[in-house]
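Need residues for this backbone.
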């Protein structure tokens, strides 16, 4: 996988919802782990684990999670499922590597009832080869019995059918509306400090063009920070590939949806990232800014912690990149303009002559992210199907209802439905937000993976009880950035995967090495002549070391094969 394609990480969501959406047990480089103790208490009266025979009663089944988690089957949310829905869901978490655990489980007779894993070809193939799961396509055509399973968008189900028309899993964590998907946590943009903008006598309107941005940086370079040091005009963390924002400004797509490389469509042709004319132009601009001392000279060597400290102390007049990298806490922990972080604000991408469309940074993939497989030996099929028919209820708040209980139980609207909300049970809130996985597990299993999402309403963009006024800025920023033109819905060409033994599998590591080596040389080249020499060396290295032409050729073959399926 191209190391430049960064997963969208939401620290806010990690704290509040453990929403590590892009985790992939198949070895995806975007994986984020979920620390846990592995506690697994019984869901019914006793505190001892249940045996497989204990789940044979009506409405009861075991759900094996394909990730590490702290489990307490006596949680308040699960108690609601038992008493109000008649569904006793006993959760079992994975300990250690998910694929290793899966292989061990399948080789020892399989799981008892149901198993949910991150969507991935490796897992799907292993499940089907095991001959331990059952096909499920018939249950998506029973609207009188399972109306919400029948309401799953046909596009998602059609994609899941094998050559014989079988569907082997229940999909979940998908967008209810393919035509207008939720953009997720967009964070990459140009950020100014409004206090510095005011000091140099400029307005946001002056920053509509790249030339206007340069003028701002030149003026800001003459100012000093609170400690008396000269301001650093522009901060960028290349260690986290934040130069992607500049590339997107020059029209270069830098994101994919799990594909081997960023690609953009141009009529009937495809343009690969390194071949786009804007790629060279973007680095020429960064090279110019570097030599004018308008980019932090340590941009190529700083690590995240040092970069965060510079932002916290107010060293920069402007930043480009993802706000998670320069630390959203610099405003989330404030109640007013008491520190530099309060003045941060994303601005629209500056316009550039000759660039009609911005490149895509964030590719939104509305397709299912998780699959639940059902054992062919389960005695609790109806209970499983009824539970998923409940979790996949197509209501905007259903994700919140599954993780925190239904509206009115432990949380409620502050003013009106689909507006701000708050926790209404003080004890639940205390345990839920304690930061202690064991305490959180006492109130909720946090199974957001079993639900859906949409643009209609997202809970953590509407949380109404934050401790500090600055907390709301993060959600406001991400909504603004999502509308700036660098976020789009995934197309087939964004999802072209490497084949086993192919050239992408063989040469991707070297491709990444070449890029990382030459981006620094391009940015630091001492003059125009040296820049041209470095550029020629870069394109030569792409061919000789990374086999760039072979990679593109195989990509086209893989794309055609994918479309012919």
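Answer:
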């Amino acid at each position: 996988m191209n190391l430049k394609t960064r997963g969208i990480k939401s620290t806010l969501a990690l704290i509040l919802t453990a929403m590590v959406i892009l985790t992939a047990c198949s070895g995806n480089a975007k994986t984020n782990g979920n620390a846990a103790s592995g506690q697994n208490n019984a869901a019914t009266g006793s505190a001892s684990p249940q045996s497989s025979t204990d789940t044979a009663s009506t409405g009861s089944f075991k759900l094996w999670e394909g990730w590490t988690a702290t489990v307490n089957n006596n949680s308040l949310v699960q108690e609601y499922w038992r008493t109000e829905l008649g569904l006793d869901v006993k959760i079992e978490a994975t300990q250690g590597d998910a694929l290793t655990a899966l292989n061990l489980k399948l080789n020892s007779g399989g799981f008892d009832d149901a198993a949910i894993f991150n969507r991935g070809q490796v897992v799907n193939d292993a499940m089907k080869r095991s001959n331990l799961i059952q096909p499920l396509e018939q249950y998506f055509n029973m609207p009188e019995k399972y109306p919400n399973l029948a309401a799953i968008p046909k596009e998602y189900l059609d994609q899941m059918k094998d050559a014989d028309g079988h569907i082997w899993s229940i999909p979940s964590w998908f967008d209810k509306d393919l035509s207008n998907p939720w953009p997720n946590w967009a964070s990459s943009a140009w950020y100014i400090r409004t206090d510095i903008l005011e000091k140099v006598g400029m307005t946001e309107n002056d920053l509509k063009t790249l030339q206007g941005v340069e003028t701002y940086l030149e003026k800001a370079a003459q100012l000093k920070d609170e400690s008396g040091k000269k301001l650093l005009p522009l901060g960028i963390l290349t260690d986290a590939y934040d130069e992607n924002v500049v590339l997107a400004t020059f029209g270069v797509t830098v994101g994919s949806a799990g594909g081997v490389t960023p690609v953009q469509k141009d009529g009937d042709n495809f343009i690969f990232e390194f071949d786009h004319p804007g790629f060279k132009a973007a680095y020429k601009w960064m090279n110019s800014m570097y030599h004018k001392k308008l980019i932090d000279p340590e941009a190529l060597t700083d690590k995240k912690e040092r970069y965060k400290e510079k932002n916290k102390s107010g060293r920069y007049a402007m930043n480009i990149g993802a706000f998670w990298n320069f630390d959203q806490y610099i405003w989330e922990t404030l109640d007013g303009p008491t520190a530099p972080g309060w003045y941060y604000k994303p601005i629209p991408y500056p316009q550039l002559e000759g660039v009609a469309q911005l490149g895509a940074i964030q590719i939104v993939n509305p397709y299912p992210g998780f699959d639940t497989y059902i054992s062919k030996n389960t005695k609790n099929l109806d209970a499983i199907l009824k539970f998923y028919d409940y979790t996949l209820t197509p209501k905007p708040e259903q994700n919140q209802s599954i993780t925190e209980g239904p509206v009115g139980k432990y949380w409620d609207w502050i003013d009106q439905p689909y507006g701000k909300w708050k926790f209404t049970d003080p004890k639940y809130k205390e345990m839920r937000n304690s930061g202690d996985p064991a305490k959180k597990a006492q109130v909720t299993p946090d199974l957001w993976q079993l639900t859906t999402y949409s643009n209609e309403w997202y809970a953590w963009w509407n949380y109404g009880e934050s401790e500090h006024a600055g907390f709301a800025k993060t959600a406001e920023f991400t909504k603004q950035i999502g509308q700036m033109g660098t976020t789009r819905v995934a197309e087939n060409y964004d999802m072209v995967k490497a084949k086993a033994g192919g050239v992408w599998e063989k040469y991707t590591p070297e491709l990444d090495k070449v890029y990382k080596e030459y981006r620094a040389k391009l940015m630091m080249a001492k003059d125009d002549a040296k820049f041209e020499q470095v550029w020629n060396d870069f394109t030569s290295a792409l061919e000789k070391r990374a086999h760039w032409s072979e990679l593109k050729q195989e990509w086209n073959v893989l794309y055609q094969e994918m479309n012919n399926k």
